[in-house]
Amino acid sequence: MSRTTDRLLLLDGRLVPGTGGSFETINPATEEVLGTAADATAADMDRAIGAARRAFDETGWAADHAFRARCLRQLRDGLRRRAEELREMTIREVGAPRFLTFGAQLDAPVGDLGWFADLVESYAWESDLGRAEPMGMPSHRRVRREAVGVVGAITPWNFPHQINLAKLGPALAAGNTVVLKPAPDTPWCAAVLGEVIAEETDIPAGVVNVVTSSDHGLGAQLTRDPRVDLVSFTGSTATGREVMASAAGTLKRVFLELGGKSAFIVLDDADLRAACSYAAFSGVAHAGQGCAITTRILVPRERYAEAAEITAGTLAKLGAGDPADDRTICGPVISARQRERVEGYLELAVKEGGSFACGGGRPADRDKGFWIEPTLITGLSNEARAAREEIFGPVLVLLPHDGDDDAVRIANDSPYGLSGAVHGGDVERARSVARRLRTGTVSVNGGVWYGADVPFGGYKQSGIGREMGVAGFEEYLETKAIAEGL
Ligand code: NAD
After folding, report:
1. Which of 116, 127, 247, 347 could, after both became Cys, cross-link 252 (CB 3.0–4.6 A)?
2. pLDDT over threshold 80, residue 256
3. Model confidence at 4, in pLDDT bands (50, 70, 90)?
4. With a 6 A CB cut-off, is 239 part of the ligand 1 pocket?
């Protein structure tokens, strides 16, 4: 371990300090400085891209399917050996409630690496189209799938292991090399990946480079560099637009997972108490910092007051708690900046005519850390900005609907299209409402769509492309047709 920083970059197969020195990573629940991470500069990023380019162009990585499957399993097993240390680190660096680390915040994405290893072995890399005589010339045609090349992976802070691994897993399985640029708020979650890759796998030098930095500009650098073939980005819709525009200069492929303002529809034949309690619980898990969280709750107009009471009651009972406690559902938000952003939306909601059925500010009993109480806003219409824009905090908006058609109309009246939920007594009817939502995933009566084999992504301004599943893996592949003259 270097003397100047607690965690290092992975550059061209070696764990090294950043030429920019180091920067601090902070526990959002306490504001305690956990330690430092290497602060990469543009020169480090340049080296990382060069190493990834060389590893792709000059090694057999892309061609050796069996070797890659073995390396992915080594990575999974190496991460599993450090699982308990990573669990404590994730709770402290991300503010993730402990219960989530047994799922999407840690254990699930680590296990999913095995799914991608299996896929490398079972995938039909070449298909035979047989013989034909196009324009009278006998030919045998085959279609091959092969890696795109160098992938620039740019990730946010909210589910760092899930998002880092949902890019690394399929990108490596497909035979690409990768430069990973994580968010400055959660550098350690990425840096430990570099450590495990360097110390516990046979992944060749340059195939994965992990570049932590306090400078967002390094992400932009990845989107411009002509040596990068594909940018895989997860983050806000505003940054996604910049990524797409910048990547246009060198006509890179872009893969975007962006924001959302997903609807939770309660139909008039649903068990209102069960549905609203579930909406409250799922809406503020991890302090609402999930792009696919359902933050607009749509309930039958005639039962609006009752729904407000149930939802607010559940939120008040949940409260905001220490993420290390295994009963906590809603922890802190990631940073002072994020808390300010959420508070800005709370003020805006009041200006727009809304009121708080519960919450609406910081919890009285915490003077350290970045906390917002679980909050329910009532009295707004779907036109209000607080009801339309992504808040990314533990803040839900309750909206009335006048039946199934109206609920579908309101749910789809959004620039986003990431996810959604429908609850109803008649499952056939709930399913037909789900089919009408213009979103990439929908949960019906509490069904969980998350899984390595399930494609995840957005319609409209929630993104382009799919992550996970065979569709997600194929985002990282090119298609080549080869015809032999006969
Ligand atoms: P962000 O868009 O600010 O940053 C995401 C990443 O992009 C970071 O690594 C950042 O350093 C980098 N970046 C910043 N400016 C850049 C630029 N011009 N070019 C290239 N890279 C740049 O997002 P955030 O604040 O870290 O995360 C919160 C947002 O991410 C929320 O809006 C949330 O909805 C979204 N998100 C979406 C998904 C999804 O799968 N759809 C998942 C998680 C988070």
Report:
1. 247
2. yes
3. confident
4. yes
